């Protein structure tokens, strides 16, 4: 995704390269401030592509995974949707927890949820469930969060 955003930025700056200093400064400011929006649109396109591909695959679902801040399309086997943990979910009362996210990640989550037509909470629960499922299959996340120190802090209610 970063390569595509850099290409858009370069194209914008190249288009004003013949302008005066004020025009180039303005273009640089626009290019810099438009990055979050470009990331959101790009992630939305990845999610749309994943949905389109999933609809064409009878036994797999294509999902977007973020690896080092970059989206990656991954095909996962479709499940029946009902597992023992799904039954436990129906029996359990939801628990509220607080998660602190970097702004860019929050924006990407919001975009992904909107693109999928679901709430942010549902999207996060699905992402956690998917990560736990992959972990149980012996495929742990490839890259831990750069924001994690390995220790836990915060509060639980």
Residue-averaged pLDDT:
77
Structural class: mainly alpha
Strand content: 5-15%
| SSE succession | HHHEEHHH
| Percent of residues in helices | 55-70%
Describe the largest sheet: 2 strands, antiparallel
Straight-line N-to-C gap? 37 Å
Strand order of the largest sheet: 1-2
Please write out the topology.
Elements (H helix, E strand, L loop, with lengths): L1 H14 L5 H13 L1 H22 L3 E8 L2 E8 L6 H8 L11 H14 L3 H17 L21
Antiparallel strand pairs: 1-2
Helix pairs in contact: 1-2, 3-5, 5-6
Can you characterise this structure?
- The protein is mostly helical.
- The chain has a domain at 34-136.
- It has six helices and two strands, in the order αααββααα.
- It has helices spanning 2-15, 21-33, 35-56, 84-91, 103-116, 120-136, and strands spanning 60-67, 70-77.
- A two-stranded antiparallel ribbon has the order 1-2.
- β1 and β2 (70-77) form a beta hairpin.
- α1 (2-15) packs antiparallel against α2 (21-33), α3 packs parallel to α5 (103-116) and α5 (103-116) crosses α6 (120-136).
- The longest helix is centred in the N-terminal third of the chain and has 22 residues, at 35-56.
- It is elongated.
- The chain starts with a helix and ends in a 21-residue tail after the last helix.
- The model is unreliable at 140-157 (pLDDT under 50).
- Pfam families: HicB.
- Residues 145-157 have a biased composition (Polar residues).
- This is HicB family protein.
- Residues 135-157 are annotated as: Disordered.
- It comes from Bowdeniella nasicola.
Key traits:
mainly alpha; 56% helix; Ribbon_hlx_hlx; single chain; Arc_rbn_hlx_hlx; 157 residues; disordered C terminus; HicB family protein; two-stranded antiparallel sheet; Uncharacterised_HicB
